[in-house]
């Protein structure tokens, strides 16, 4: 991944940070296919002067300088959606988890900014857990993901560069949505994009 993407800054951008940025773009591709118009804002709902994604876990209400995407359906009264990376989300247990990528209605995001609170997982349209590894993701990490998915209230999709066969069997056995081998230009990228499109389409068609 570091050879596929580059970023400028005072220090190198780690592969896992670039992977979150890559997954962010896959969500945007799915949104464009589903007819959403895409724009970008900072935490003050203004057009960003610099495109900036998080490189460490953060909070939506304190992310004034970070960029998020806004997905708008033209000629529709439906609430626009926001796409964020690396923010805290509150699960059913009231414990905060990091969402690598999350899509939620703009009205919910605005409320979080106004009240200084983290979004509840029940407000999310889609949550993505990304794992960038050069060696297979362990079975133990798969078990951790199942715990995360159980605590989140809405659709959570697991995406990884490479995994073990035992982890695949585990996720299949629990009927958990996932894609492995997800890298730019690979078939798994398109398969993951299709999963994102289903979630966005469901929102678009919801009455």
CATH architecture: 3-Layer(aba) Sandwich
* Gap between N and C termini: 40 Å
**Main sheet attributes: strand count, strand direction, barrel closure:** 7 strands, mixed
Strand content: 15-25%
CATH T-level topology: Trna Endonuclease, Chain: A, domain 1
The tally of domains stands at 1
* Residues in helix, %: 25-40%
Shape: globular
Please tell me how large the radius of gyration is: 16 Å
Order of helices and strands: HEEEEHEHEHEH
Number of strands: 7
Number of helices: 5
Uncertain residue segments: 1-12
Q: Tell me the name of the CATH class.
A: Alpha Beta
Strand order of the largest sheet: 1-2-3-4-5-6-7
Q: Let me know the average pLDDT.
A: 89
Q: Could you describe the 3D structure shown?
A:
With 207 residues, this protein is α/β, with parallel strands linked by helices. It has one domain (15-205): Trna Endonuclease, Chain: A, domain 1 (3-Layer(aba) Sandwich), CATH 3.40.1350. The chain is built from five helices and seven strands. A seven-stranded mixed beta sheet has the order 1-2-3-4-5-6-7, with helices on both faces. Strand 3 and strand 4 (96-105) form a beta hairpin. Helix 1 crosses helix 5 and helix 3 (139-151) packs parallel to helix 4 (165-173). The radius of gyration is 16 Å and the shape is globular. The model is unreliable at 1-12 (pLDDT under 50).
């Amino acid at each position: 991944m570091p050879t596929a993407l580059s970023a400028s800054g005072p220090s190198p951008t780690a592969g896992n940070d670039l992977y979150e940025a890559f997954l962010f773009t896959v969500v945007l591709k799915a949104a464009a296919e589903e007819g959403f118009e895409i724009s970008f804002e900072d935490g003050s709902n203004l057009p960003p002067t610099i495109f900036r994604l998080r490189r460490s876990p953060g909070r939506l209400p304190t992310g004034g300088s970070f960029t998020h995407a806004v997905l708008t359906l033209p000629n529709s009264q439906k609430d626009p959606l926001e796409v964020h990376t690396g923010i805290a989300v509150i699960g059913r247990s009231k414990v905060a988890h990091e969402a690598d990528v999350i899509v939620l209605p703009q009205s919910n995001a605005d409320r979080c900014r106004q009240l200084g609170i983290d979004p509840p997982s029940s407000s999310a349209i889609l949550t993505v857990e990304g794992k960038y590894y050069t060696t297979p993701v362990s079975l133990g990490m798969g078990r951790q993901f199942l715990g995360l998915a159980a605590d989140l209230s809405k659709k959570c999709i697991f995406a990884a560069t490479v995994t073990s066969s035992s982890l695949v069997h585990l996720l299949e056995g629990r009927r958990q949505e996932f894609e492995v081998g997800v890298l730019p230009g690979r078939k798994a990228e398109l398969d993951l994009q299709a999963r994102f499109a289903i979630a966005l389409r469901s929102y678009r068609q919801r009455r």
